[in-house]
Amino acid sequence: MNATNLETIYFAGGCLWGVQHFMRSLPGVVVTEAGRANGVLFRNHRPLQCE
After folding, report:
1. Nearest residue to 48 (alpha-carbon basis) of 33, 28, 37
2. What is the average pLDDT across 24-51?
3. What are phi and psi of 7, to 5 degrees?
4. What is the 3-state secondary structure (H, E, C) of the chain?
5. CB 33 within 8 A of CB 20
6. Are the CB atoms for 16 and 37 separated by under 8 Å?
7. How far, in Å, CA of 30 to CA of 4, rounded?
8. pLDDT tens-digit readout, 4-32
9. How, if at all, do strands 49-50 and 29-31 pair?
10. Which of 15, 23, 39, 43 is the most buried (most CB within 10 A)?
11. Could you tell me if residue 2 is left (phi over 0), alpha (psi between -120 and 50 degrees) or otherwise beta?
12. Please, which residues bridge with residue 23 across strands?
């Protein structure tokens, strides 16, 4: 995987971890992160990145 081909996308949803689980099943999704806007990130989560 070439890091220059990745994009970061932000989505809003009701259940953070439900949306994250769904996004992980989509083709091209490399990593996901559940969190709140302007909130504190959990250490074991990463941003959603797609090719």
Report:
1. 33
2. 72
3. -130, 150
4. CCHHHCEECCCCCCCHHHHHHHHHCCCCEEECCCCCCCCCCCCCCCCCEEC
5. yes
6. no
7. 13
8. 788 888 888 877 788 888 889 999 888 88
9. antiparallel
10. 23
11. beta
12. none
